[in-house]
Amino acid sequence: MALNCAKQKTYWLRCLKTFLPNGYTSMDSNRMMIACFIISALDILSALDASMTTDERSSYIEWIYASQQDTGGFQGFPRTPDANPEPNDSHSDARLTIIWEPATVPSTFFALAALLLLRDDFSRVGRRECLTWLTKCQRADCSFGQNLNDKGEVDGGYDTRFGYLAMHIRWMLGGDLLATQEPAWPDVNIDGLVRSIRALQAYDGGFGDLPCSEPHGGYTNCAVNALAIVDKLADGIPDEDALIHWLVLRQTRQFEPDNEDDEDEDEEQGGFATATTSSAIGFNGRCNKIADTCYTWWICDTLKTLGQIELIDKSKATSYLLNKTQHFIGGFGKYPSDPPDIYHSYLGLAALGILGCPDVKPVHSTTSISVDAVDYLEKVIRPGYS
């Protein structure tokens, strides 16, 4: 049971330095997320500094700032300088029109996190513009959307992901410190957000995307961590005991067997092995689902935030990642025997940082980036806002 650090570093360096597989071209509008995961993975593996030259680091920082919008926030990929060229002589009636992506809450979070990991000082971040834009992304019911459309209306889902990301943007930009300064800085409605999150806890303890909907591990993590980053855990969770009970029940041995030993073990236990007999136990995100690499992060991190991570079997959770979904070329697959992808590979590494794996840096609960990076934010950047 060990992390193959050499293969992991090779996988992430390949993602950083070469073209990504064709399957990622459909994610062009999410390049900022992909870039952040790659940079952060190398940081967690203590390989970030060695993976780039000073000039490369500067070019990555410039690439991120090229996505910043004058009205606040970052879009998912850099702007195109010649987005609307004039028609040429041979095609006088043709005019290429490229609609720039709006700034989005997720892309802004990932851009700021990537700048932080690259040890930028945020001196070029339009903080007032960004924090003003963030207040406009909050709906009348105090939930957050993904972006503003061309009419200035809030677009996107109603689930807790956007509230989570918005609160972390506010924290990284020192919005909690700046709101009390003169002249006053704009701030979001924290109490209203807490009320909107409270309404999402289901009867069995987890949080869904809408009131009375099925609870989900990812939405639950975002709800709890949004509350934690604004110090409102006590106010925002109606039934913490039920929440903890629901989270602990997500640890499951049910996953696709990938060798004969697993099949024999499954047969002996009537279809799936119990926690006492299995050496690897993953997590699912909803009742009656099989284990999935990413939910080791979503569930374990939530329990870490609540101070209850010792209630799960950390050794068997670690074994699930290292022995079942870690891929021989590096990275992690969604399920055992699946090829690695950037999303599951990153959350697999982050989960190991929460679980205390000695081969990776400790990961900060609520943010999914290293404790080192958060320390830099708290000691170098945020003091300048006060």
Outline of this structure?
It contains 16 helices and four strands. By secondary structure, the chain is mainly alpha-helical.
Low-confidence stretches: 87-98, 257-276
Shape: globular
Count of helical stretches: 16
Which strand-content bin applies to the residues? under 5%
Q: What composes the largest sheet? A: 2 strands, antiparallel
Number of strands: 4
Features:
4 strands; PGGT1B-like; two-stranded antiparallel sheet; 16 helices; single chain; mainly alpha
Topology:
Blueprint: H1 5-17, H2 31-44, H3 54-65, H4 105-117, H5 127-136, E1 147-148, E2 154-155, H6 160-172, H7 175-178, H8 190-198, H9 217-229, H10 233-236, H11 240-248, E3 251-252, H12 260-268, E4 282-283, H13 293-305, H14 314-325, H15 342-355, H16 371-381
Antiparallel strand pairs: 1-2, 3-4
Helix pairs in contact: 1-2, 2-4, 2-15, 4-6, 6-9, 9-13, 13-15, 14-15
Pfam family, one: Prenyltrans
GO cellular component, one term: CAAX-protein geranylgeranyltransferase complex
Protein name: Terpenoid cyclases/Protein prenyltransferase
Task: Describe the overall structure.
It holds the Pfam family Prenyltrans. With 386 residues, this protein is an all-alpha fold. It has a domain of 100 residues. 45% of the residues lie in helices and 2% in strands. It has 16 helices and four strands. The strands form two sheets. It has a two-stranded antiparallel sheet. A two-stranded antiparallel ribbon has the order 3-4. The longest helix is centred in the N-terminal third of the chain and has 14 residues. The chain is globular, with a radius of gyration of 22 Å.
